């Protein structure tokens, strides 16, 4: 069969071979048309019909009309130039100022004016001398911490020991009731007299009942408020006194410490449940209950809030009427407020000792002047 006799079957797309049936040649029939798939009419659903309702037509978005674009004028040449006032300011040149050194510069003296004191002037309430230090020196393992300090502490006065950290303030304070003896490597020189008697000739318990101490952190005993104050009173008694015998003394100590009105209804409450300021006042009450002659205070307000600090400072002013107070503080403003006398120590040396006004307002030593003005510390 010849190639031209091969035709494509429109349905099976296969080659169909026409056999020669012996009939004469006839014209070829045109190819049968390719049948098309019948078109199925799609009925309109109610949703499509509902879009043709008037409500649907009203919801149709109207065509957006383009707004006319305003014509923009081309930038003019004057717009790129600064205004005339700015141009004039740029053209002005500040005058050149010439300083003529016709004489060497000299410092100007401060103006003479009266200063408002931060505290009232010291009142003449000083009583008899309670403690006297003559050439007191303390060393630890041969290294000096306090060097030959001599001063006097009187009843009715508050002595503030000031100076930077490590200058020997706390060491000197602890020497006044022989607490430095608890350090094995400590050695001392000089003498400390309590009412004219050497403190090293007194029993330590007797000395510490006459020279009481309040420490930096409140340290109440784990017992009731009443028993905390009565502890020192019981230790001094030869026989254990009863509660009703101690109650007037405990109440008096709490009143003097400014704490009684706050705890009067619950003296059996555990002391550790008090606030920090109340605990420190309880320690003061415990210290003054045996009626000491000197009260030592090692930064008593450093761990307290400002309100409690104000209460303690007011209490110090009231306690000095009956005893001598020695306080160590890093707060110069506090020393200015509560102290009558100030001793400035630096690296173990007593640099200056005098009244509060003398040390803070008119210091004699240059190092004292630098410290009270904040140059170091």
Concise description?
Helix content is 29%, strand content 19%. The protein has helices at 46-50, 54-59, 84-91, 169-175, 204-210, 225-236, 243-256, 260-263, 276-288, 306-319, 332-338, 356-361, 366-372, and strands at 6-8, 15-17, 129-140, 143-154, 158-162, 186-194, 197-198, 211-214, 294-298, 324-328, 341-346, 349-355.
Task: Output the keywords.
single chain; 377 residues; alpha/beta; Rossmann fold; 6-stranded mixed beta sheet; 4-stranded antiparallel beta sheet; 12 strands; 29% helix
Give me the CATH fold name of one domain: Rossmann fold
Strand content: 15-25%
Helix count equals 13
The level-1 CATH class of one domain: Alpha Beta
Counting helices, strands and paired strands, the structural category is: alpha/beta
Q: What's the average pLDDT?
A: 78
Order of helices and strands: EEHHHEEEHEEHEHHHHEHEHEEHH
The CATH homologous superfamily name of one domain equals P-loop containing nucleotide triphosphate hydrolases
Count the beta strands: 12
Gross morphology is globular
Main sheet strand line-up: 8-9-10-5-11-12
């Amino acid at each position: 069969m010849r190639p031209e006799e091969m035709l494509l079957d429109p349905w099976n797309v296969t080659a169909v071979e026409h056999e020669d049936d012996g009939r004469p040649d006839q014209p070829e029939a045109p190819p049968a048309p390719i049948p098309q798939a019948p078109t199925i009419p799609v009925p309109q659903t109610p949703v499509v019909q509902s879009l043709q309702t008037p409500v649907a037509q009203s919801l149709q978005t109207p065509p957006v009309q383009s707004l006319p674009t305003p014509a923009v004028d081309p930038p003019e040449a004057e717009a790129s130039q600064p205004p005339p006032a700015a141009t004039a300011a740029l053209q002005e040149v500040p005058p050149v100022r010439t300083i003529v050194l016709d004489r060497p510069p000299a410092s100007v003296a401060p103006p003479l004016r009266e200063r408002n004191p931060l505290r009232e002037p010291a009142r003449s309430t000083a009583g008899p001398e309670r403690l006297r230090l003559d050439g007191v020196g303390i060393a630890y393992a041969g290294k000096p911490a306090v060097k030959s300090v001599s001063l006097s502490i009187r009843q009715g006065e508050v002595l503030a020991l000031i100076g930077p950290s490590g200058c020997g303030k706390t060491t000197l304070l602890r020497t006044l009731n022989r607490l430095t003896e608890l350090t094995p490597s400590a050695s001392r020189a000089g003498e400390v007299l309590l009412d004219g008697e050497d403190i090293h000739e007194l029993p330590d318990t007797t000395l510490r009942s006459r020279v009481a101490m309040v420490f930096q952190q409140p340290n109440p005993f784990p017992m009731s408020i009443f028993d905390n104050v009565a502890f020192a009173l019981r230790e001094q008694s030869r026989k254990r006194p009863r509660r009703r015998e101690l109650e007037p003394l405990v109440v008096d100590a709490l009143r003097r410490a400014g704490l009684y009105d706050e705890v009067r209804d619950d003296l059996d409450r555990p002391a550790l449940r008090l606030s920090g300021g109340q605990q420190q006042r309880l320690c003061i009450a415990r210290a003054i209950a045996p009626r000491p002659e000197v009260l030592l205070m090692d930064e008593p307000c450093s761990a307290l809030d400002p309100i409690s600090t104000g209460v303690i400072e007011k209490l110090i002013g009231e306690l000095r009427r009956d005893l001598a107070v020695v306080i160590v503080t890093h707060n110069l403003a506090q020393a200015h407020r509560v102290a009558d006398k100030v001793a400035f120590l630096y690296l173990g040396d007593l640099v200056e000792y005098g009244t509060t006004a003398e040390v803070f307002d008119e210091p004699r030593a240059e190092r004292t002047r630098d410290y009270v003005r904040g140059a170091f510390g």
